[in-house]
Amino acid sequence: MRQFAGTLAIQRFDRTEALHDGRVVLDRVMVAQVLPGVGVRGLLNGTFDVAEIPVAHYAFLKDRGEPYTAIPVLPDRLFLQPYVLTRRGSGITSLADLVGRRVAVPMYYMTSSLWHRADLEAAGVAATDVEWVTTAPERDERMRPPAGVRTRLVPGPHLGLERLLDGEADCLMTEALPLVPAAHRGDIVPVHRDPARAQREFFEATRCHPALHVIAVRQEFADAHPDLVLAMCRGFDQAKQAAYHLLQNERITSLPFMRAHLDETERVFGDDPFPYGVSGRNGHELSRLMDQAHRQGLTRRRLTVDELFDSAAAAYPWSARMSPGVDLAGMESLNGLAEPPPAAAS
Description:
Layout: E1 6-10, H1 17-21, E2 29-33, H2 36-45, E3 50-54, H3 55-63, E4 68-71, E5 84-87, E6 102-105, H4 111-122, E7 131-134, E8 150-153, H5 161-165, E9 171-173, E10 188-190, H6 195-206, E11 213-218, H7 219-224, H8 226-247, H9 258-269, H10 280-295, H11 311-314, H12 332-335
Parallel strand pairs: 1-2, 1-3, 6-7, 6-9, 7-8
Antiparallel strand pairs: 3-11, 4-11, 5-9, 5-10
């Protein structure tokens, strides 16, 4: 029977699938599939030693000196432009039109909400220019919006579509496309009339693919098991490499234009479109996000990127890369596994 020294709680994405199904094995670490809220609670109460949690919540904990560190794995990223919605006939056709309006978000300090407000700021709209309607309390009761920011809690389903449908809000800024009832599908429209173009323009202007989650570690566990922290880095690297290999076999997915999507992704983002680590785009992006966390009142001081992460994990040589094309005679085209990335230097 395997003896476990720690527990890793993460969501199931293509880039983490191999950790869940056993293609990549973490010695002495039990991997659990959880939703983000469960991961946060489990990390805070000691059920989990390592967990995927929102970047905003992690920054809040670090700012208050809580005993946590992190691995620079950002397993959940999302361009948010398609998830800015309004009612047809609202008169809202751009972010600039939100001055004086009511904007619904799941929580004021959701990581996605930080990124949305950064977009508003770029459009000349301050947080104090709108009334914020939230569908759930903040994850930590110590989280308080800055003076002058108006918020109103109207409890409801997480993504908040109901606040548009019942007229409590004029605009919805959320983190996924909600299921719109058939009777209302013509009533809900995106604020960005061409969301795909808006996403591209955002990336060209900022070089950011917004990170929403990070892998947080209890400091006590990191101190007691530095070898397992590095083993997790290697595991995440291998699992992402497996996903990259699988993507290259277009028959694995149900998207008819998959080859074109893959080629375009590599052209725009390079051969590691979902990077881990603290260098390159990630360092720039995390620095920008820490600026926003401080500017928006989530943190009392401006955190640096270096202080967010375990030093050994930050130095890990991430090596997963996407190579165009597939060898259909090789089993890696069906299971994703190829030669593993090199081990971290001791």
